[in-house]
Specification:
- The protein has about 240 residues and is an alpha+beta fold.
- The protein has two domains: about 100 residues, no CATH class; about 100 residues, Arc Repressor Mutant, subunit A, CATH 1.10.10.
- Strand 4 and strand 5 form a beta hairpin.
């Protein structure tokens, strides 16, 4: 008789500071796994904490069925942000998937194409005005995590030199402005903190990120960039 393995566990990622979504040490993600899964950085929609002390185990020594059941219970208990029921960044109710499954390159390509643009499961979802106000207020002025931080002079010089000589005509600028599509973006940093912005270029510049790489993430063309994830919340114009 083959005994069912009991090396699965359920784990949570904890917030490293207070945010609009939850208090410090509150969970922002619930997962199920075994081995080193809880500490892996790659292959995640929601980034793992940089500090391993913010990874906590709910229960260990479980069968896979028990782990799935506990995962579902924890997600239901804490609730999900995307459906306005709680504080977790989980995008499903848990309990799904197949352990050890590794998709082929062809399968990955098809999954990527199936989740781009309007095909993305979160395309068109909107956030309440109250939620936007709370997130905006929590990041203003001295509350902003980058308040008082300055960019090194060498970096500023390189950016300045890269922009020299780039002049667009009035007609070109007008055509670009009229043809632009404006979005409301939701971005999540490596610690699980949520940011809402309407200007991805300025946001990338403020946080020292590559605008092109971040743009691919929010449009579903890349899963993450430097552990940042994001999506388009709403089309504004």
């Amino acid at each position: 008789m083959t005994l069912e393995r009991k090396d699965f566990y359920v784990y949570v990622f904890l917030r490293s500071r207070d945010s609009a979504s939850g208090k410090k040490y509150s969970p922002y993600y619930v997962g199920k796994g075994r081995g080193k899964r809880a500490f892996e950085k790659s292959g995640r929609v929601v980034p793992a904490p940089k500090d391993k002390s913010y990874v906590a185990f709910v229960e260990e020594g479980l069968t896979e069925a028990e782990a799935f059941s506990l995962e579902i219970y924890c997600i239901r208990t804490y609730g999900r942000i995307d459906v306005s029921t709680g504080i977790l960044h989980n995008r499903t109710d848990g309990g799904e998937g197949s352990s050890g499954w590794v998709p082929t390159e062809e399968a990955r390509r098809k999954m990527s194409e199936a989740h781009r643009g309007e095909k993305h499961p979160n395309w068109g979802k909107t956030m309440s005005q109250e939620s936007r106000k709370r997130m905006s207020k929590a990041k203003k002025g001295e509350n902003h995590p980058n308040w008082g931080k300055t960019r090194p002079p060498k970096v500023c010089q390189k950016i300045s030199e890269g922009q020299k000589g780039r002049v667009q005509s009035v007609k070109t600028r007008r055509q670009i402005s009229l043809g632009r599509v404006f979005y409301l973006y939701e971005l999540i940093d490596p610690d699980g903190e949520v940011y809402i912005t309407e200007n991805l270029f300025d946001f990338s510049k403020q946080y020292g990120l590559d605008n092109g790489a971040l743009n691919k993430v929010v449009h579903g063309q890349a899963r993450h960039y430097k552990s940042w994830t994001g999506r388009i919340v709403e089309k504004l114009r």
